[in-house]
Design a protein that fits this description.
Helices cover about 40% and strands about 15% of the residues. By secondary structure, the protein is α/β, with parallel strands linked by helices. The chain has two domains: about 240 residues, Periplasmic binding protein-like II (D-Maltodextrin-Binding Protein, domain 2, 3-Layer(aba) Sandwich); about 190 residues, Periplasmic binding protein-like II (D-Maltodextrin-Binding Protein, domain 2, 3-Layer(aba) Sandwich).
């Protein structure tokens, strides 16, 4: 992400946002070769070119838009959200008269099943995908654009969620839930979350005792957690919002500055990267020896019964800049092969509205992407969830292009090397990292 994007995101004024699940493994689903010529008559083109559909799109905000006569829908939903979705389906049928069948389908399987079952009309009309899978789905012609409710979606959802639900400038998704990592802290050890890294350093100087395994802060040394030291300082992975593989920003001035700052933090965490694993920091945090832990909502359950837990945004950088994290977004998508594209759009829009996102949070813990839902007292005032919302506001969607696979291992190697050896030249190390990535990209 370039500086211009960073500035844009800093301008976001909403105080929210984020989602509980997803261990954010960034594997894109398999590619397909679908094309619009092979789609059935209910493809997006046939809907858009239909006079009645065009009229409906023109009056997107009117409640006069109605589903097709005789419409019925099938929705895929993961096991942990099955009860919630059945309630949404029943409410939708009451309002629109369209019966909805909810079928259990693991979240990680829905994209692949759409690719195989979509063309044969065996797939669900509406499904959920993590944002890193939509590129392949779009290329295969498997999902409809969110065109009828595009403007409303953009105005009611957090900007990062909208960006993550779009591909090549076109919005496809109806954002459902969001997630990122943030700063966990033990309120019995540090009563208030530090606002800046300077605050963290000051606390560490009074708290650290390596001989007793007492440390102020820890995070895992993998590429996913390195992004605050990249994007927060003006660096980026790929240019043009992580889509231009010919423009690698991992050795630019911003990234060099960020990783130089990273090296300085070795003074407050005098351990090698290999000694700081998820299990190690989890155990220390549970035992009350680690005061702060950079982690995601997927770890809340491991701590809530052991720690007087608080969650806050990541500390601001040395120049007072916000710290940017990587984030993930789940959205509803409408199958392009559905026989009822208007009903499908209506359902995706209905399921993603403020009320249903709050219902999803209450029933499953999924954190909404809807701006007003994030301002609701049950979320905004929640001492744990509110911290994730605030951090999500300063987050960047995980890259969704398959070429991100060429980045993770070289980036991790640089992250670890520069940490383990603070005397290592940052620019030379990152130059070599970029050369390694370029070489891997050229070999494919």
């Amino acid at each position: 992400m370039k500086k211009s994007k960073r500035s844009k995101m800093q301008a976001v004024t909403f105080s929210l946002v984020l989602s509980l699940l997803l261990a954010l493994s960034v594997t894109a689903c398999g590619s397909g070769n679908g094309n619009s010529a092979s789609k059935p008559d209910s493809s997006p083109n046939s809907v858009v070119n239909d006079p009645e559909a065009t009229s409906n799109e023109t009056n997107a905000e009117d409640e006069e838009m109605k589903p097709e006569a005789g419409a019925k829908l099938m929705v895929w939903e993961a096991k942990e959200q099955l009860d919630y979705m059945k309630q949404v389906a029943a409410d939708f049928e009451k309002e629109y008269g369209v019966p909805v069948t909810v079928e259990e389908m693991a979240g990680g399987d829905q994209g692949a099943r759409l690719a195989t079952d979509g063309p044969s009309k065996l797939a669900a009309d509406v499904l959920t995908l993590p944002h890193d899978q939509i590129g392949q789905a779009v290329k295969a012609g498997l999902i409809l654009p969110n065109d009828i409710f595009e403007e409303e979606t953009k105005s009611t959802m957090v900007e990062t969620a909208v960006q993550a639900s779009s591909y090549d400038g076109i919005l496809y998704g109806y954002p459902k839930s969001v997630e990122t990592y943030a700063l966990f802290y033990n309120k019995d050890l540090i009563s208030e979350a530090p606002k800046t890294w300077d605050d963290v350093i000051s606390f560490a100087n009074t708290y650290n005792n390596p001989k007793e395994n007492k440390f102020a802060i820890m995070w895992e040394f993998v590429g996913y957690y390195s992004y605050p030291f990249i994007g927060s300082f003006g660096g980026y992975i790929y240019g043009d919002n992580n889509t231009n593989i010919k423009d690698i920003g991992l050795n630019n001035e911003g990234t060099v500055k960020g990783f130089t700052f990273l090296q300085s933090l070795k003074n407050i965490l005098p351990l090698n990267a290999g000694d700081i694993t998820y299990d190690v920091k989890t155990q220390l945090f549970q035992e009350g020896k680690l005061a702060m832990n950079i982690d995601g909502p997927w770890s809340v359950a491991a701590f809530k019964d052991h720690v007087n837990l608080g969650v806050a945004p990541l500390p601001k950088g040395p120049d007072g800049q916000d710290s940017f994290s990587f984030s993930g977004v789940k959205s509803y998508y409408v199958n392009s092969y559905t026989e009822y594209p208007i009903a499908g759009r209506l359902f995706a829009h209905f399921a993603s509205n403020k009320e249903n996102q709050l219902k999803n949070f209450k029933m499953t813990g999924a954190i909404p992407a809807n701006i007003e839902a994030g301002e609701a007292p049950e979320i905004k005032d929640d001492p744990i969830i509110g911290g994730f919302f605030d951090q999500f506001q300063n987050s960047v969607p995980m890259p969704s292009i398959s070429e991100i696979k060429s980045v993770w291992e070289p980036l991790k190697a640089a992250f670890v090397s520069l940490w383990n050896d603070p005397g290592l030249d940052v620019k030379k190390t990152l130059d070599q990292t970029v050369k390694t990535i370029q070489s891997d990209l050229e070999s494919k």
